[in-house]
Amino acid sequence: VDKRKHSGEVEVADDYRIHVKQAMLIAALEIDLLDLKTGHSKDPTTGLPRSADSIKDTERFMNQKLNGFKDGSAVVPMRRQGVGHMGRVGIRATKHVMMKRSQKMGMVKTRYFTIDSGYLKVFKNNRPTTKP
User: Could you tell me the pTM of the whole model?
Assistant: First the structure.
């Protein structure tokens, strides 16, 4: 059972991610608008400089989008990622070798490890079903 689900930390983390992405989208739109106003923007389909009508239409659309992000009425697109998945299902992370040496007796033990989402997981053997 995940203790964070009961304490409300998940909702706070999701809100934080949404606000950060919203701020990044606002900054990106402002940069695109600046490019339009200075004439450094090219049409993505043709690769040629935009016409005056195309610049006005694109600028109007971007301003509507920007105002929607600023007042909170626009939906911020978020992509959900599963917790604990290593990408495609059925592919296991490769285990790397780690040698442990006892300080008193000098014995050497072989351990295997993976790094999953920033966490070090140590295994006693290299079998695919071994638990950390």
Answer: 0.49
